[in-house]
Amino acid sequence: MKYPAVRNFLGGTFKADTLPSIEVWDPSNGTPISRVPLSTMTEVARAVDVAQDASPGWASTPIKERVQVFYRYKTLLERHLDELTTLVTEENGKIESEARAEVLKSVELTEFACSLPQITAGEVLEVSRGVECRVERFPIGVVAAITPFNFPNMVPNWSLPNAIALGNCMILKPSELVPLSAGRIAELLTEAGLPNGVFQVVHGGKEVVEAICDHPGIAGISFVGSTKVGKIVYRRGTTNLKRVLALGGAKNHLIVMPDADLEMASSNIVASMSGCAGQRCMAASVMVAVAKTDHIIERMVAQAKAMVPGRDIGPVISAAAKERILGYIAEAEAAGAKILVDGRGMTVPGHENGFYLGPTIIDHVTPDMRIAQEEVFGPVLAIVRASNVDEAIAVENASPYGNAASVFTESGGTARQVMERARAGMVGVNVGVPVPREPFSFGGWNESKFGVGDITGRGSIEFWTQSKKMTTKWNREAGVNWMS
Ligand code: NAD
User: Fold this and answer.
1) Strand partners, 288
2) Pick from 32, 191, 256, 482: most CB atoms within 10 A?
3) Is 320 near ligand 1, meaning CB less than 6 Å away?
């Protein structure tokens, strides 16, 4: 195999446990490149013990010292950009430019963590004569992050720099489909000077996730993945009295008005539906085409047809994912939808066993079809027709999800209407992938997020800390009154 078997990272070293393991695949070739262990509650318990030992020392290290590790980690991410990019392309399949952008986003996330001392300074006020109230933030203790397959480098970095810089010890459970980047992240954090036990990696699947939800030594969990599993983790974790922030799946609607700028709209929409082979929680999934928008659709069709799988679009993650996506396309076709661009049956020379699908655009999809309602998570865009913006907003708001929505228009009034009325946590105007950049926070609404707060930016500070309210009096003259 190209890579040695993946190991858990506990207490600053990789452990050669004898655990059952499964293969890790390169989706662009359909070949195994490594093996990943399926850990159990025993490995989770070990990691918690180690983290609990490391926790008091790390929590009491001043935040200005803690972030020095992340200044160095940022430099290491930049220094190893090529290598980290390659790891992502090999385990996830996305093309080089997409993998590079993912690692660069991790750099930006780390920059934000470095700024935390500046924005988490406490509050203090003399509340009555000689009596002072102050509020300080404290870490919550040992925490865990459970991550999905689609961003092996970036999504772990949504949680880990902020959680750790704020004084917590973190256990990461990466997706068993893409476990390689996590090991390299652990090495780089160690090289950056992070004390042993502050960041650990326990590999595996469902059993590890359940053990994380159940272990009384874990105080908080961030989860990113499908809505189905997000609900399981949220329910199980909160039942065990932990704080949980669970980001789930998505069904993002792009509303396209007839006055939209032709080039800006068509290129942004095609990039959004096809980027990362449609496997982004922010990917365009449904285009709601309002009135006369055929000229935009025609341009999109030309752009999508010009894309070359293997060069402009990577494979989907697995043979099973490809089958699932093909099922949605076939069902929509059978129900009367019109396939304008058909990505089925594509092969990439030299990668005949890769899990490739070309961009697929399907017109005249009706809101009752499964392809219009469920998350497809592939390079497929369903076009639903609407006659006005109210109808379009109603289509978007009928979705149980609420991650992202966008509108393409030249009218400020129409844009404002959609921004206000779309029931989604992240809204774009003439932007296909409205991901907020740091310091703004990332997080959806409805069935795309369970829990309070957001996973990145300022929104994450409340989640990863608890506030202590302190009232002090030192001078006798202050006396005693009804409050103090
Ligand atoms: P997934 O839900 O299958 O897996 C996520 C994590 O949960 C993995 O670590 C996996 O090992 C674990 N897991 C899987 N099944 C489990 C079970 N039955 N019980 C306990 N744990 C389980 O998600 P995925 O397929 O890896 O990722 C794709 C999904 O993630 C899509 O739905 C996508 O929209 C979503 N996603 C959402 C966001 C967001 O910000 N909202 C970001 C990225 C991905």
Assistant:
1) 255, 384
2) 256
3) no
* Calpha distance 81→75 (Å, rounded): 10
DSSP type of residue 276: G
DSSP code, position 448: G
Ligand 1 close to Cβ of residue 148 (< 6 A): yes
Residue whose Cα lies nearest atom 42 of ligand 1: it is 281
- Which residue lies with its CA nearest to atom 24 of ligand 1? 148
Structural domains in the chain, CATH included, are 8-248+448-469 (3.40.605.10), 252-429 (3.40.309.10)
Question: Residues 414-448, buried b or exposed e (16+ Cβ, 10 A)?
Answer: bbebbeeebbbbbbbebbbbbebebeebbbbbbbb
According to DSSP, residue 4 is labeled P
Consecutive 10-residue runs of the chain (484 residues): their mean pLDDT?
Answer: 96 94 98 98 98 98 98 98 98 98 98 97 92 96 99 98 98 98 98 98 98 98 98 98 98 98 98 98 98 98 98 98 98 98 96 98 97 98 98 98 98 98 98 96 98 96 97 87 72
Ligand 1 pocket, residue 205 CB under 6 Å: yes
Please name the residue whose Cα sits nearest to atom 35 of ligand 1.
225
Element (H, E) at 76: helix 63-79
| Ligand 1 contact, 175 CB (< 6 A) | yes
Residue 425 to residue 402: CA distance in whole angstroms: 6
Catalytic residue among 169, 213, 276, 281: 281
Q: Where are the beta strands (DSSP E) in 176-314?
A: 199-201, 220-224, 243-247, 252-256, 284-290
Structure-derived torsion over alpha carbons of residues 56, 234, 12, 118, reported in degrees to the nearest 10: -60
Cα–Cα distance measured from residue 461 to residue 163, given in angstroms and rounded to the nearest whole number? 8
- Among 290, 248, 284, smallest CA distance to 386 is for 290
Q: Quick check: bond before 439 cis, omega within 30?
A: yes
Tell the residue number behind the tokens 């009034």, with chain if given: 413
Q: How far apart are CA 314 and CA 159, in angstroms?
A: 26
DSSP letter (8 states) at residue 6: P
